[in-house]
């Protein structure tokens, strides 16, 4: 049997054993997300498609799957969805700018051997593709933080319906601060794990510190880590504000009608 | 402005000192990277003028259309024996920029100076690499300031833990390379224990909640590694395409397993600390809470975080392959072959990490309950 299939089956069984119906839904969500990601990559091969817009669309669908399919459509997932989208939009602009000034798009010179059999003049915009890679690697964390903030905020709002918008916002920020550390940690290690081969390569070929810092691959990976951290931090105030605003607004509406 | 002044006045002393300190560090490091050319051995040139001299349309054998431009560049050397002299460079770049780069005035690059031109009035040379440290430092500061502004103390801790863990990883790899004969898995295993202790103790302090999370993290990672290893052994690693693993100077299986171990560690830690803090939180609220109630609430929390955590790992791993996928597909490679070549290792890593996450839920739950029972017996 194939390693991937075997691991997938084990994961599926474990998720059902521990998570029941929700576990099964989470497992299928992984597959749906994989499909969306692949589809986005395939459409990006068309030079006429703008990778930035495509990424925005893919992120909308993925956030929809993560928030509305695994959970449900309700007043805790709706503000989370909106905040995730706003954060991704802001972050995407920032990252396109960063990719351009740091010149980290495309492939590095360490990959030339592998690339030699390919034609590199393929007419798609690698700056934008580079930006979309960074965003896509962070989307899971961004939606996670958003939902982790809105659900305790809604609990608090239920227990104290007269709470002011400012207090709700403050509560959201304090929840966000608690999860900021663990979430950035998750991302750091996920990326470190992927970069181990590259780090050993640099050390085995005794690159100097300056060569490592200025190499395209290392810069690209560091920037991915840093942008992931920025995304996780940014989604906290945005979500807290939007959730506080929508909760208080629905209360006012209910009050007048 | 007055608002800001009063805000600064009301700040606690430690925050004020820290803010001033970080602003000073920021200024110093930015000034330094803009003037650090003399620290590099390779000659660095700063572009003064760029002119586009040629533009051709190119179609490759797969029918992909692209534009190729040629730039004539006049640059000034910033270090070394020709410091201050001008140098002529040419740069060919494509519109897509997969492996090349358009330059504009102000960009700094590493160059090699042509030997035969040395001594003559006009130097010529070729561009080797862009100088990226300036933008790297700037982005690092954006990251630090945003984390501090949003996270306060917790933000500071996560910046510190990133820095400490990165240095530790680099040091561990050094140890691995110098001492021949030690296995990478052992080195990574020992560092994983250190990573876990540093990250969790730094953020959550020395208490039973943290100890429970540390033990759960170690057991969870171990069991996920064991499952992955067993599967790889039982299936004879069928379906894993090591030949496309990049940057290999060492046996691929070992590097792959080390990646699985380190990569899933953060997510497993996250699950472990979430489980232990919620179980301890329930116990603190009600000291007589029955074990059964703790189990049910713990499982409910586990169900909630399972899906999102596996998603985080999944996207972090798979997204990096997008440029390679596009390159393969544009070079008329069949989809199935492209996927199996580029995604098999990433998918295996994501699935192994997912198994680690799910296994840590019951492990974390039972270890926290064990600690709660011990605490209860003592009081």
From TrEMBL, chain A:
Species of the source: Mesobacillus foraminis
PANTHER family listed in its UniProt record: MEMBRANE PROTEIN, MEMBRANE PROTEIN-RELATED
A Pfam entry, by short name: YibE_F
UniProt keyword list: Membrane, Transmembrane, Transmembrane helix
InterPro entries according to UniProt: UCP031503_TM, YibE_F
Transmembrane segments: 29-45, 52-69, 81-99, 179-202, 222-248
Protein name: YibE/F-like protein
UniProtKB/TrEMBL annotation, chain B:
Record-linked InterPro entries: YibE_F
Domain of life: Bacteria
UniProt protein name: Putative membrane protein
The keyword Membrane belongs to this UniProt entry's keyword annotation: yes
Alphabetical UniProt keywords: Membrane, Transmembrane, Transmembrane helix
Record field: transmembrane: 135-152, 159-178, 184-203, 210-234, 254-283, 304-329, 349-372
Keyword Transmembrane: yes
Signal sequence interval, chain numbering: none
